[in-house]
Structure formats: structure tokens, C-alpha cells
Amino acid sequence: MPEKSPFFRQFRTAREFVTIVHDNVHVMNQITINTSYTPLVSWQRLMAGSAGPVTVMVIILIVIWYIAVIFMNTPWQIDKFKRAHQQWTTWELVQGTMQQRRPVIPAPHQVLVELYKTVVQKNVTSRRSLVYHSAVTLSSTLLGFLTGGLLGIFLAVGIVHVKSLDKSLMPWIIASQTIPILAIAPMVIVVLGAIGLKGLIPKSIISMYLCFFPVAISMVKGLRSPDPLQLDLMRTFSASKSQVFFKLRWQSALPYLFTSLKVSVAISLVGAIVAELPTGAQAGLGSRLLAGSYYGQTVQIWAALVAASVLAAGLVSLIGVVERVVFKRMGAH
To answer: What distance in Å separates the CA atoms of residue 260 and residue 268, rounded to the nearest whole number?
Structure first.
């Protein structure tokens, strides 16, 4: 029988050797798990989601914003120091660019202060409240989005199922978006005002005009997305046109629909704001932008822009939630 090596002589049995090796492997695994929480790995996990990249991008934009504030507001601040015969340092110049009452570009903290004053400190029914103006704009946005979305779906269904509509209607749909909305909005407001339609309806029509296009184009693509083999299989099973539409075409078009709705709801908000500009409206985010431009209140303008962007982000997020719920009910992963 061969003699044991010196390494194995320290173990009395083979089981003792296996037990010690198992314990050492367990310890090494624990060390590997503990060392996996390094800053690099934590950063990778943070950036793997959606919150990390969005946060990093927001920080970068804020830094760029502050740099732009310094450069754009510096000439006026230097002129102010000269007229006051005041000696100034670089730090005083930087501070001055961020404390101007009517700056070329307001600093982020100035916009936040304005938002706090007009959102939190003002009554929601006050005409100085951004909540009140946002609600006015939101009403025309949602009405235009609803009518525009339905119009886009109906047009897409007709184009897919009727060849004459495909050849005659599609070019006009595309051509309708070549006309600038700033040229159409005043005409729509004036014409509808002449027949007694004012307020919510004209603004919602302009929103509808902007948002129906992406829905129509995407739904045409989605309704035509089923594979020809799938359509042949439905015909083999003697499926009617309505069954082919609801069980195949509509199901295939839903991803296209929700993608287009996210674009449309943001465009609808833009259309509602643009529609408020030529009317001289007394309420709405467009009226806040117009009043700020009249009186040189750049902080008010930027606060309204930030409120509009937050409102648009909320609407897009809401569409995303509905999308996840619908796809979960359909069994999608």
C-alpha cells in the first residue's frame, strides 16, 4: 500500500478532509459575496435601472444650466457693477449672476423658489397659482388627446381595410403635418370664434390636430404587422374579418398604439399651450408664458416651462402604467 503524502497525514479520515475542504469553500464563497458589493458593482447595479441614468442626466443638465446662467448673465452684471462704481471679485460676479430679478436665464434655485410660491403658497383657485393654470391647460390637453387618439385609430383602421383610403387619405394625413402649427392656430381660433366656439373647444381642436398623426401612422404600421402566415391560419380556421381584427391585428398593434400615445399626449400638451398664445387667454400655461414675455418676467416663464414639462412627464408615465397593466392582463412578461 503506498505511503500517504505529508499533506494528507494531518487528516485522520477522508471524511475529515472533505469536511474541511467544504468549510473552506463556504468561507471563500462568503468572501466573494462580500467583495461583490464594491463601489464599481454598486454603480453598475444603479445604472442598470432607469432611476440611475435619469438622475445622472438631471445632474448633468443642472450643471450645464448653472454654467449657462453665469455666462449669459455676466455682461449685465458687469454693467451693473460699473454703473454703481463698485469693485467686484469673481465670486461676487458669480453670485450676482444668480440673484438678478430679471435675468436672461434664471438659475435653477430661482425657478424652484418661483414654483414654491406659485404652487404651494398660492390658493389653487387663484389666477396666480400654477396649479390653476396647469388644470386649465390639462383640460384642453386631455380632450384633444382623447379625440385625436380616437381619430387616429379610426383613420388607421380605414386605411388598412380600404385600399382606396390608403391611396387617397394617407398622403393628405402626411401633408397636414407640413403646415406649421403657429400658422394654423390663429386661423382656427378666429374662425371658430366667429361661429361662437371659444375657450376649451378651439384649444382641444388644435391639440387633436397635432396628436392624431402619430397615432394614425403607428396604428397603420401595427395593424399591418401580423405575419402573412398568421393571416392565412386565421382564414384556414374560417375566422371572420372582425375576428381577424380583434384577435390578431388589434393584439399585434397594441405595442405600436401605446408608443404612439406616449408621443401624442406630450404633443397634445404642446398644442394646448400654443393654442393659448394667440387667444390672449387669461388662464393656462400659455397665458403665463405670454404674460411673462410681456413684462420681462423670465423667472415666471421658466417656472411655467418647468411646470409644463413635469405635467407632460406625468401624463407619459400614466400612459406607461396603463400599458404595463394591459400587457400584464394579456399575459405578457
So the answer is: 12
